[in-house]
Amino acid sequence: MEPRFTLTDNEIGARFAKRFGTASLAIVQSPLPKVVREQVSLRVSQINGCGWCVDVHTKELAAAGEPAVRINLVAAWREATVFTEAEQAALALAEEGTRIADGRPGVSDDTWARVRKHYDGDQTAALVALVAQMNSANRLAVIVHQKGGAYEAGTYAS
């Protein structure tokens, strides 16, 4: 599978990508911890099968000092002992917010209560925005066949 299109090589695509990146600053500059942001981004990307985004977020977690066991177990977080209750709440929100079309009622009241127990209003807003934005990013990358493997940690830091 070869890449179909480089969005940023097109004027409209480049303008969109710039604004998409600017919107992400609200999330990056929020009080939501970086590790939680990356875990949520990784889990959404795993569900959506986005190789590029899985590559980005596994490498960003590693660069943030996360041990391999925690990175590797994001895919099976419910069956792992290495995540805090707060991280589990965020991962549950990521899954339920991503799998809306799978016959679920969206985000359950239980998951929402767990999120609100561990995250204040700003962090909750950032989590909701992150799940929505990662789903959008995954769709962009999957549609154009953007492949994973070449990302270098810190590329998007600026």
Automatic annotation (TrEMBL):
<feature type="domain" description="Carboxymuconolactone decarboxylase-like">
    <location>
        <begin position="18"/>
        <end position="96"/>
    </location>
</feature>
<dbReference type="InterPro" id="IPR003779">
    <property type="entry name" value="CMD-like"/>
</dbReference>
<protein>
    <submittedName>
        <fullName>Carboxymuconolactone decarboxylase family protein</fullName>
    </submittedName>
</protein>
<dbReference type="Pfam" id="PF02627">
    <property type="entry name" value="CMD"/>
</dbReference>
<dbReference type="InterPro" id="IPR004675">
    <property type="entry name" value="AhpD_core"/>
</dbReference>
<dbReference type="InterPro" id="IPR029032">
    <property type="entry name" value="AhpD-like"/>
</dbReference>
